[in-house]
Amino acid sequence: MTIEELEYITARANESATDRQEWESLRTLSEGRMRDDRQDDETRLRWARLALTACQRQGRAGDLESTKALANQAYIRVHVIREFGPVQGDPIRDTHDLCDKVFREIGASRDQIADEAAEWRSAPPNRMLRLRYAKNLLTPLKPLMDSIPQSDPIRQDLAEWLSLIPNLP
């Protein structure tokens, strides 16, 4: 199938009627094609949009927990930002938007996560799981540090969040 056909089908797909494996197949195919540097940049960005759509549909349909869906989206968006550069206001390439979404999804402040991480070995399972989710969400953002200018305030926020990763389960 061509990218045009997949975009057409995706735009008209009924989320609840589409098989979970179909969204996963589309995400996997689209991610591979977005990384194919033999294609022109615009086509690669279209593949990235398709991959993100598949992730979002998986999350909304309940086929994938929100943390995993967002982590998949983060990996895709970070790749696009690194390949094509950040663009504020762009739905894929906005580093501030991506970081804000991840920080919000973690559901606690950086200080709260740091405090909990200090004692994670004796924490109840639900707290350990929350810390693990935080780590799974933050890890895809590591490569962003190279794409964010020193003067950008989000860089300091991100650096502080990323410094928590070694202490998380």
List the helices and strands and how they pair.
Blueprint: H1 3-12, H2 20-34, H3 41-60, H4 66-84, H5 95-106, H6 110-118, H7 125-138, H8 153-162
Helix pairs in contact: 1-3, 2-3, 3-4, 4-5, 4-7, 5-7
Overview of the molecule:
The protein has 169 residues and is mostly helical. The protein has two domains: 1-64, no CATH class; 92-169. The chain contains eight helices and no strands. It has helices at 3-12, 20-34, 41-60, 66-84, 95-106, 110-118, 125-138, 153-162. α5 packs antiparallel against α7 (125-138). The chain is globular.
Number of helical runs? 8
- N/C terminus separation: 42 Å
Number of domains: 2
Q: What is the average per-residue confidence, as pLDDT, rounded to a whole number?
A: 92
**Strand fraction band?**
under 5%
Structural class: mainly alpha
> Rg to the nearest angstrom?
17 Å
Number of strands: 0
- Percent of residues in helices comes to 55-70%
Q: What pattern of helices and strands is seen along the backbone?
A: HHHHHHHH
Q: Give the biggest sheet.
A: none
Low-pLDDT segments: none
Query: How would you sum up the global shape?
Result: globular
